């Protein structure tokens, strides 16, 4: 059987499972692949179903995911059990019913996924298509669209492109040829300007104040290291976001960012995966007083605040990291000298200001 014959057969089988006149709710754990796949299934269902809703069981927080929902007009709503009354059938993409507690308590007629199937959790759906070799469910959905001869519109194609890109980390992580084929076919219909816009939505406006603080408090360690203590934070997510940002600076190969979060000293490590092993570093520095570990590129330590015996946190961490006392503000290696070159005259400065305004 030719691949396209298989694809159209799979499409026909899926249509069979969708039936006619039902009210479908597609449940997802929202990430780009799940959002795109839900949009594709909704498109396929649109011909036969009475209504199709999409609901996500997690809170969508990442700015790129929010940008994707907004720019690609994905109508997914936060899931709450009361929602189910309006639907008589349930489907799931990019997950299996045992993956999230909020998925429990109802029967799913359609499950399309690419996560491995656990022998103790067999898929009970009437229509079950799980392909663990695929890099993304978006690629599977693209095949269904092709088999059913549905040409994806611009927004759907863009969503699927972003779904594949995210799950395969732009083809740096696991993928198969089918992912490449789907990707290349979809880019003909997708809006790459929108893809770029979504990719570059990396930060929330409310995060900018943390950058400002991190830039003020950063201290270089050795030749290629960076240490930043962020005082008290509400969530370690901010540390992760900042640590990931600093990995993108040429000339830095590792960083260690810390803060007190809910009575715990949380330390996040990021490395380039080539030099120092962050997991070893975390364990060596803090393994004796807290939980510490990770892998080569990323690690974390959590130390109960009382283990510091009242010592100032920043000093304590710096001492453990470098063996030295925390330099005073004047000695802080990132404080730039006030006048790196010959001091400019007031007149020259004024002239420069004028020409800048004239531009
Ligand atoms: Mn996925």
Automatic annotation (TrEMBL):
SUPFAM superfamilies: DHH phosphoesterases (SSF64182)
Composition-biased stretches (Low complexity): 337-350
Region (Disordered): 336-359
Superkingdom of the organism of origin: Bacteria
InterPro entries with a match to the protein in the record: DHH_sf, Oligoribo/pAp-PDE_c-di-AMP_PDE
Protein name per Swiss-Prot or TrEMBL: DHH family protein
Lineage: Bacteria, Pseudomonadati, Thermodesulfobacteriota, Desulfovibrionia, Desulfovibrionales
